[in-house]
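$ run holo --ligand "zinc ion" --emit tokens
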Amino acid sequence: MGCSKCGRQEIIFQEYSGLHLCMQHFWEDVLHKAKKTVRKNHWLVPGERYAVALSGGPASCALLDFMNTLIGKRNDLSLIAVTIPSTDPDSMERARAITEAAGIPWFVIPADNATEKDLQENRCDVLHQSPFHAHSLIERSLSSSAGNLTINALAMGYNLEDHAEWALWNAISSGGIQQSGFQADGLKRARIIRPFMQIPRQELDIYTRLFLNDYYSKAQAEDGNRMESPITAILSQFYRKHPGAPYALVNIGEQVKKFRDQVS
Ligand SMILES: [Zn+2]
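-- output --
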């Protein structure tokens, strides 16, 4: 079947939109969605310094590429990449190579001890934790280093499914994990931005494989050591039958957030 927009050979069928897309139109679609998310949330502020949380995994490399497209040529904004050292030498090497090729300053920052301990303890207790606990600990570690690196905002490679799960979790739990503006010691935290929160995980993997193939020569699943919570597994099964469901969850989450903001 040909691309719904130009008739060229399709590389992907988006069940949720009903569109068949060729390579060019798939590329445009991903960039369009990410740019729209950034614009809608007013995430680019002149004079600010941005950091990409770069693990070396497919989503984070795609995010670096995207943020570089968005910011790289602007004189009023600057971009760096930050990485918490990983035990996977391939990921570290990819992070190094991709920042070097793009000419983006790269900082490897140590995970703080408290975060590391917390992560290890909570790994055994997945059922009792928000699926975002591990993410939020990594976020905390990165954004608390932001002060030293004078970063205003930290871009994270959260995808649509991550965001849908977060929205669901927040809607059904009383508090959920909130991004507070300040750390315990009163320092302002970097804002967290998530340009890919409307893009499905599978599309980010395809994007990386097609457009960053110097770094990813073969298909790879997102972070091999990614912890899959029971909620994630249930949702993945559900999405296979209902491809539009993650978008619906994200919308419901936004409405719940609006409602809570109004009553609080
Ligand atoms: Zn096309």
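-- notes --
The two ends are 51 Å apart (CA to CA).
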